[in-house]
Amino acid sequence: MSDQFLGCTVSVKCIDDVAYQGKIIDLNKNSLTLAKTFCNGIPHSSSIVILSVKDIQKLEIISTEEARTSMNDVQSQSKVIVKRPIAKRAGRSVSECVPPAPQATSSPQTNVKKPAESNQQQIDQTPNGKIPPAENNASNKSVPKRLTHKQRLLGRDEHTFGTPIDQSLQQDFDFEKNLALFNKEAVWQEINSLKPDIVRQSENNRSTTGIYRHDENILVSEPTVLRQIVVPYPGEKEYVTDNGLVIPSITLNLHRQLIGAADRLGISWERRVELLGRAGAELTLQLLGGSYRLNPNNAHQWPTVVALCGPHRSGAAGINCARQLSGHGVKTIVFVENAEDVFLLQELSLYRLTENKVETKVKNLPSMVDLILVALCDEDSPKTITPIARWANSNRAPVLAIEPPATGTPGILSKFSLLGALPLSHSVDNGRLYLCNLALPNKVYTDVNITYKSPFGPKFVIPLYSDDS
Q: Tell me, what DSSP letter sits at residue 97?
């Protein structure tokens, strides 16, 4: 009865929770012998495993194929090409593949003869009991036929792929069941135990901090903090540059003292307004597209800029910026409602020399422009919403404010703002802040008790970022 299970592939679970898989090659009342054995999903170190029947808790048959049937199929279907060396003769340099001689259908034992018995039989058949040399060579082995290149290739393929496939491989493999036999945690522990201590430590630190993408930095670093400017009365905010330099804000009173010291020491408004207008023109040219937009080949896309200026020094700086933009070929339009301020009149007379337009009515302004310069208010101007503010909001062009109030221009949300000297504590309505180098000497800062070292480096205009830390 037990012979019918020989050759079956089984899964055996023992009492000690160890699972084996293999093919039955021997089965009796006391033991079970398996070949090609897997232990917990891992190939066993021994090719044959003997299990005691009393230790077996559960046995499942995976394949019911019998060994006898498989052996008969192998004998009937397989073809093997045997290579044997052939003595070298003239014109032959290598041994050749010789196909096996045809065998009788009877059992292999009937065709096998020992060399001594074969030679003795041949000796008895000769008259004198001796074998002639020529006849002996002819009777022992026949001259093999030389195989063609195609026959050698076919024989090689048959030797490699001619073995029949076991029918158990045609059945669906139970991945979940086989995976349950595999102790993954034990294998991972064994792999991790072979790693150096520094590798395990780095992996543990990474698992606690999270998994990072390929474009993320795993080194947490803080920006460099450098303080080169110290003010006696700092404002509510601090700003930092691209290089990590801290730029403190100042109060409105200290800002007025700084401007008064510049006027007293000879750095007049005329000098400062030229620098502020140049910085505004440089920033505007970059916002308009730089060399890609301001190119003679793009005459059909030449930009238009409208400057909204009020009757004060900030308004004069807006007109000065429009005049310098005209020197770069940009079409500019200056809007003023009141031209009675002395600083505004001086800059307006110079702007008229460019032969660009000066408008005093909102309805004459174009509905679509490329950029809007806003210099309508300063810290001393009344904070009221005017019709020009509604026109600016209806236009989709970006807004660049020049020296705006810290609370922002009433009714207008600026995207960029240009500041001079040191910044005030500006609100978010002024957008992104840029600081202009007015080239004030250190004596101007020391007169108002400010320790100053230039943060500009090689640039004339630098961006400021709110230091939220």
A: B
